[in-house]
Every structure is written in structure tokens, then in C-alpha cells.
Amino acid sequence: MSLKIRLARGGAKKRPFYRIVIADARSPRDGRFIEKIGTFNPLLAKDNADRVTLDLDRAKHWLGEGAQPTDRVLRFLDAAGLMTRPARSNPKKAEPGTKAKERAAEAAEKAAAIAEAAAEASAE
């Protein structure tokens, strides 16, 4: 059985609240879980101590049993000092696509043509 340390959503509409749980990877997000080891309240300020509560002893136990944390939970474990999260870098993510590049080139050509026409008109 592959275990995951993941978030299970609770709370009302537009008011999220998450439980940090140990669950079988095949079970649904908000479905059956084995053990609750903490909570996460994203509505609280980032420096608030109650934003993330985590039972570190149980987290260590389940990590020793082979449980794999999701990316968000890995951030919490990294902040607590239990695991290290590798830095990510994707510089091409912000780069525009080919169509957007083509549109930008066309717009630049039009702007250059308009500026050239305006310069000729003012010179005469």
C-alpha cells in the first residue's frame, strides 16, 4: 500500500480549511484516511503560529514507514526542518508562446511603420 501525506479539504465555500492526513494514495482527496497529523488554515496570516499545526513525531513515524508527502505538505515539512525541498527553477515558464511572439512582432512592425510615416509627415 502506497501512503501519501496530503491535504484533505474541509471548511465552507470560499473558506478553505485543510487537515494534513496520512492516506492510501488510491483513496479520494476528502475520503478515507488513516490518521490526521495536523491542520492548515490558509486564511490566517503567514506569520501566524496557528496557520500550520503539525505533529512532528507522527510525521517522522510515517515518513519512516515510506509515506510520500505532496508538494504542499513537503513545504510544511521543510519549514519544520523534517525534510528538504529541492529548489525549482523553470525560466521558460514565463516566456510567451509562439503565437504571442508573432502577434508582438506584428504589433512592433505596425508601430514602426506608423512612427516612420509620422516622421516623414513632420519632415515635409
UniProtKB/TrEMBL annotation:
> Molecular function terms in GO for this entry?
structural constituent of ribosome
Residue spans of biased composition, Basic and acidic residues class: 92-108
Cellular component per GO? cytoplasm; small ribosomal subunit
Looking up InterPro entries in the UniProt record yields: Ribosomal_bS16, Ribosomal_bS16_CS, Ribosomal_bS16_dom_sf
Q: From the UniProt entry, list the residue stretches annotated as the region Disordered.
A: 84-108
> Keyword annotations for this protein?
Ribonucleoprotein, Ribosomal protein
One GO term of the biological process aspect = translation
Q: According to its UniProt record, which protein family does this protein belong to?
A: Belongs to the bacterial ribosomal protein bS16 family.
Instruction: Supply the name of the protein.
Output: Small ribosomal subunit protein bS16
